[in-house]
Each structure stands twice: as structure tokens, then as C-alpha cells.
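Lab notebook: predicted structure, single chain.

Context: the supervisor wants predicted structures on file for every construct in the current expression panel, including those that have not yet been purified. This is the next one on the list. No modifications to the sequence; it matches the entry in the shared construct table.
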Amino acid sequence: MRRRLAVGMIAGLGMLLTIRAFSAPAVDYLFPDGAQRGTTIHLTAAGKFDIWPALIWVDSPGIHFTCAKDKGEFTVQCDKDAPIGPHLVRFFTADGTSFPRVFMVGGDPEILEVEPNTSAICRLPLMANCNNTMTRIVSR
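Prediction complete. Output recorded below exactly as produced.
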């Protein structure tokens, strides 16, 4: 009887520890994945956030993430002197840390494409810059 109780307690404790170990944030992608420096944007981090609000680490002090009310929603402020280029972002809680994600900071204006854009009036101007990110929003 004692042996069964001990085995049951150990199995229950093992399941509890396993469930607890998977509580770290898991971010699949960021949308949009970049911003122009000197601007503030709304960003969605798609993935799993068991604990909210999450804490955010960014490799640059010129990029500031603030948690919104809904899980996975953030306000990102890029300072005017934020370094241009890719930056690593990690989301973490007391239970663990997400894999790093890349957030781009550019000096050129961001262009948001909004669907539908099938008419000639809705066409976006295409500028030839090698440091731009084009963000597409599909809404139906």
C-alpha cells in the first residue's frame, strides 16, 4: 500500500514539474518585424504566453517594448538615435525565456500594405531601397 502511494506521488510530482517546465514564452514571429527609428508602433508577438505580462529584453537601449492589455500585444518605441539594423528581442518570465527574435530598425519610412489593393488607386509606390521592410496586412 505504501509503495503504491509513493509511486503515485512521484508520478504526480513528475507530471507537475513537466507542466511547469513548459511555461516559458514561445514566440513564433513578430508582426510587424521592424520599425523606423523615432517612431512608436503596435506589435503582435504570435505564440504562447502562459504568464502575462511578460518581460522583454532587447539588445539595444534605444528600443522600448511595453506590454499591452492583451497577451502578445506590445507597443514598441524606437528612439531617434536607435542603431539601424537587426536587433535581438527575447521574451521571458520567471519560468523561462523564449528563443531570440529579430526586430529590424530602419531609417526609412515604413509602408503598410492594406488589402484589398486590386485597383489602380490603391497601388503602393515601390521605392528602391536595400534597407526596407515591407509589411503586408491581409484583412477580409
